[in-house]
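Margin note: ligand = magnesium ion.
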Amino acid sequence: MSEPVRVAAVVPAAGRGERLGPGLPKALRELSGVPMLVHAVRALSQARRVSLVVVAAPPDDVAEVQSLLDVHLTGPAELLVVPGGRTRQDSVRIALQALPDDVSVVLVHDAARPLVPSELVDAVAAAVCAGSPAVVPCLPLADTVKRADAAGRVVETLRRDELRAIQTPQGFRREVLVRAHAAPTAGPVTDDAGMVEALGVPVLLIAGDDEAFKVTRPLDLVLAEAVLARRRAAGVR
Ligand code: CTP
Ligand code: MG
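Resulting structure:
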């Protein structure tokens, strides 16, 4: 792609955060006094290549999310808030439908990965702009992974050196991602690249970042606060 490209980020943020325990929807839970979603949108909008961020908010909290972002974010990136859907896949599809025509590259980033470095966002965008139709950041696994049956017995041990843990943002040519979301899916979908793979489109892996971890369970909040404390001590933000 040599013509100028407009890059937008889509942020699924409409989940409840069941695994985090009772409380506000996960994206609105605070880290160092600032909602997780605000951290995530700030990182995206600070990436040089991102000029628009579309947030799929919890459907009951659209107005609150809009005003939170208005209060906390000042910068050149444009912001749009839409009501999310029943599943992550629905939320991404609804946000895609809100994109203006001139966007040709889309990054999908979980609100639940609030501490993603802006450098990783730009690296994913750059790889798509350089010609890859789909790009995902990954890390090697720390744990060994086994396949299990319903009775709780091990069926198989997978080779760890062949496995990768996948993060977001995942980057796509817009047309590829839209096509993937229009196609029927078999089984549960946990990431957008999986739907693109099902179309037979090649997906490029690039190096992820430890700080792009997903806040899923309570202990992840402790890690996130520690990362923020380390950044403050280093004079970052
Ligand atoms: N998500 C969404 N719409 C949904 C469900 C999830 O936009 N209907 C978003 C979440 O807000 C999150 C991302 O998808 O940013 C990844 O999902 P996950 O980590 O599973 O978050 P939750 O679904 O909120 O958490 P849980 O599964 O523990 O309820
Ligand atoms: Mg979920």
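The chain has seven helices and twelve strands.
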